[in-house]
Amino acid sequence: MAVLGSYCESNGSVAHVWVHGGLSPCFYFTLVPVVLLTLSLFCGTVHCVCYRRFGTAMEPKFVPHSKLYALQLCISALLLLQFVAGVVWQAAGPGVLPGYALAYGCLSAAGWGCAAALLWTERRRVLVQDRTRGHSTVLLLFWALAFAAENLAFVSWSSSLWWWSLETRRQQVQFGLWLLRYIGTALLFILGLKAPGLPRRPYMLLINEDERDLEHGQPLLGQNRESQSTWQNFGKKVRLLVPYMWPKGSVRLQLLVLLCIGMLGAERAINVFVPIYYRNIVNELTDGSSWKTLAATVCIYVLLKFLQGGGAGASGFVSNMRSFLWIRVQQYTNRLVQVRLFAHLHSLSLRWHLGRRTGEVLRSIDRGTSSINSLLSYIVFSIFPTIADIVIAIIYFSSSFNAWFGLIVFVCMFLYLTLTIVITEWRTKYRRDMNTQDNNAKSKAVDSLLNFETVKYYNAEEYEVNRFNHAILKYQESEWKVNASLALLNQTQNLIIGSGLLAGSLLCAYFVTENKFQVGDYVLFGTYIIQLYTPLNWFGTYYRMIQNSFIDMENMFQLFTEEQEVKDEVNAGNLLFKLGRVEFENVYFSYVEGKEILKDISFTVMPGQTVALVGPSGSGKSTIIRLLFRFYDVQGGCIRIDGQDISKVKQVSLRAHIGVVPQDTVLFNDNIRNNIRYGRVSASDEEVEEAARAADIHQRLLSFPEGYETQVGERGLKLSGGEKQRVAIARTILKAPQIILLDEATSALDTKTERNIQASLAKVCTNRTTIVVAHRLSTIISADQILVLHEGQIAERGRHDELIAKGGLYCDMWQKQQQGSDSDSASDTETKDRSTEKLQPREEKTK
After folding, report:
1. How does this chain sit within the bilayer (predicted)?
2. Is 530 left (phi over 0), alpha (psi -120 to 50) or beta?
């Protein structure tokens, strides 16, 4: 137990500022806490009173959720506890406890407690009229003074009254506490400039924007997922990666993962032993060891270098073997992600797919898949090993050399990583602008070339060239900023590396001259440091790539969060098809809340009957088709097939009994045979050709140069409209459904082609329950029942003759179409297919 002595040691005085080649500890440890406590207690108290009296409590939705703010609080609490622990440790030890040490600990703890209270208050209360953002001047000044005070310790480097010599246990503990304070105050000052726990903009501005957004139905809360930090919820994002790194159900792949991790650990050990054996070689050469001993050491060193590789594990045997073994795990990850997401997208509703760009979704899949592999590679095999190497190096140098070498490595690594991250973040805006300008230049070029004819019409070649040249110049300006900032980053990294190497080399050389170290130790230090810095050269690239990969991964996992709109019930059974009776009973439906598309729709289609749906655009005809196929669920009423509610049966079994021929038939970019076979993928070639005969397209296909093997092109663009419709009909015939849905299947065709297609459709619909959506009334004259829809309701129903006799809405539509039939026929005879990509029969090719 220490005895409390005089305030200053050895007859010293607070008035003595400089003693024994440095600052007087009594003066320093008295002045610093007094200044900090005065600032935090008096100025901080005034500030808190202003917040309490004139401020207002911030709404929780405006307070950003930040882990960096939590780090600020933790550091403040840690520093406060450090002061208390320092006093307790000195009081519990032997010797005399000077009064200034007790005052320093108590006053400093009080000052940091006031600062922590102010930090807590600033996050919860705000002066509404304050137009600035960030921490108060009091808090920033407190952190700046605290950091500056810790830097004053360097002034007393040569003083025997300070702990720089690290000779005794007491000095080592005091040095450790100072190092903790130095790092803590530096971090608090840096984080204080960023103010992560406070709103980014003035509070009054946020309130005004929130009120305006609420008026438009767009609350501010949750508005900016893009503005959030990429590193927010880092732990959660990493946990999302774990299932894709650990292959469930495959013991072989799991063993490969464990083996790769084991090899990763072996690389870390090899990186330590390579410079050690290099040192041993130098020492043995210097000491004149025997050839046998030297040869054994050299062989071990060369073996380690072979395992490590020339680039500190970048191209060695162990690294290459790990990369080779990881290929199967990477393929597993690719397959698992893509298949899961592809299956999930097919489970989503038609509403979701109609509201999304297919290209955007595919880009999210591609980028998301590659981002997961990149993140696993960068984090597991680059970032973590690099950090592990740094920690191992600090521990090794501190234990095998002395604490100064560990400190040099720590400071250099800390500065290197910190400045790399800061400069990389700063460069991000330049890279973003460069990408924007690059996209702009490419879009201008593509737009100009796609409109080649228009450019020629107006003699605008020079204008287009100048426009493209201007876009290139803007891109190059942004590119220069990117490359210049990269050069700055490289020079900064090089300066830190050089400074650390210089400091360590000089210190090591000094110990060699003092006969405390051997020459090999100097070689070891230089080799180890250079080896340590090699992977760090890529740290900025890794950081940026991880940042981009997190963004791509978030976009992909956002797709996984999309919920199915149409789901099978838990106990849903298969549709038990009997005759094909279709019933709509009091059906209501709307795509957007408040705007009903269908209102109280009721009708019945008896087995084998044909019912036609007609009416103006937007009346709900196609919606009825989609509801029956269960692309959507009804919001009122019920749809039954053979007395079974279709919402109670499995979607797969329902759709197996229904065939659809849409207005716009889209074919897969495959041959014609496989496009027809899509109706029933297990069908034989003979069944495919029989379906083509029934659709009256078999002879036409045989006239093509490659027959059924003809490639139809993207979306079937190499076929004419009539040919595509016949392929769709053949596909439906092959499926052999009991219920047929024709959604304006011939409305996009000319009159002659339509008449030919109608004959094929009639064959398909024979003895099948059929619902037809028709635009041209002449195609549904023979329907068993015609439903006339108007504004989502059934306005009229009956056969063609009955509706004509009524003289209602259907009669008006019929008369208008009859009046326009002559002009339509004339225009049909003049319609030609301008596309040169349409396939021609074999006979025409030989002419």
Report:
1. Multi-pass membrane protein
2. alpha
